[in-house]
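Here's what a typical entry looks like (Terminase large subunit):
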Amino acid sequence: MEWSTACPDWENRIVKGKSLVPLAPLFPDEAEAGLEVMRQLRIVDAPGSPTIGEACAPWVSDFAGSVFGAYNPDTGRREIKEFALVIPKKNSKSTIAAAIMLTLLIRNWRESAELIVLAPTIEVANNAFAPARDMVKHDDELSDLLHVKDHVRTITHRGTGATLKVVAADSNTVGGKKASFILVDEIHLFGSNHNAENMLREATGGLASRPEGCIIYLTTQSDKPPAGIFLQKLQYARGVRDGRINDKRFLPVIYEFPKAMIDAGEHRRPENFGMVNPNLGFSVDREYLERELTKAEESGEESLRGFLSKFLNVEIGLALLSNRWAGAEFWEQQTRQDLRLDEILARSEVVVVGIDGGGLDDLLGLAVVGRDKDSREWLSWCKAWAHPSVLERRKEIAPQLHDYARQGDLMLVKQIGDDVEDVADIVEQLDSSGLLHQIGVDPAGIGAILEAIVARGIDQEKVVGVSQGWRLGGAIKTTERKLAEGNLLHADQPMMAWCCGNARVEPRGNAILITKQASGSSKIDPLMALFNAVSLMALNPDTPGGTLSGHILKHGIRTL
């Protein structure tokens, strides 16, 4: 059999309200047999306790039918092994999860089979178990067929001995599981779990010897920038949907607005809410969404982004909190996808470098800022390095660091010194271009970096110490203004969006501070490097190697 799970025309489909499932069930009889069972299950907490068939929109049958209809009864194999559904809150996600898994339990033929719903927390596990439990307890025929054990969140098939169990995920819970069917609920909450990938590998290992099985991912968008295992699965799902990745064993269904609509602000128009809320008019109330949007808009950017992510499935690029850095609000709009280091060198008349961090518990950040020879816009590109000890000391951010390493914006060095040598290599490349004016550094702990730079034959006079603390406030405000004015452009680097979202402002008298202490375990070193570079570019250097100002500090470098 030949088929494709790609849906390259998804933007046209979602605008017109068409199904996002790109193909009919591979085995229609199996799909109909499963749907016949599922349609009779009752939604107990809905008014009048209607059945799934009476209360759900057609898209539910489209998605569930693709799961049931992927099973080949002649070979005993499920031809599509993974399914993903990304959908906003209140679209009956928990009910759908319960109904699909309960149907698979009823129709399963394997003796003592295991079916598990993997939830990130106890609360989510309880939410996933309750609809399935109620569907059984409020149906006499199902009560005779299935036995519910509330205290362990388990439903057992009396005939086959197969079990459906809802578990809060950790490696100890899922270790050794031989599940035939796995449903991962709210996978976005696994994004900050540094061990999530290994845990899922443990949970899904049983599929290697159970060809009839499958794994289903159900989730809403995250109210933080996607990270870790969630980012991996989301990017993969989009790749399959768009036709960039050829994987006919993976079927993604993602309810999200086309990027052009988000850029134009059309996703915030109430008449478009139904595009990403397929259950609008069923379990989703339009008036409620409109009121929540109004309240979120009045409450500020942080509240608005939370509403957009949860109720309209808009991906968040920056984590903007109440004490956020003002420049972060303008960061995303100044992104340029083609702006890399070579492009900056080709367009610039002069470049400066900023360097910050480098401790075993920090990132080492480097920022390059060039001034466009024609428009005089400031062009920036950043990179960071991390020692493996950071991954151990800061396990809560390890998934993000691995993401940025895969994207190429962060290097995970194998031993101390490799990061400094890489920085010196980039500085040498810039100096060889004839465009390098100065290198701005935090004077504290600069010894190793200075030695590596000088060893490349670069004039030590080009290395300038940039005063930190409240004295850096001018560079911070300059960066804010340049972003807001549209005169500071930067490369499309998710790592830098993360750093901007981590930056926390502390008022000190008439000045402002952005400190690593206020940012907690999250990292801002590449952003601090950018501020150091901005300090130099703000002096409006005329030509590379211009006159240095300041006085001699330790290590023989000058300070602004």
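Residues 445 and 493 are 27 Å apart (CA to CA).

More examples are in the samples folder.
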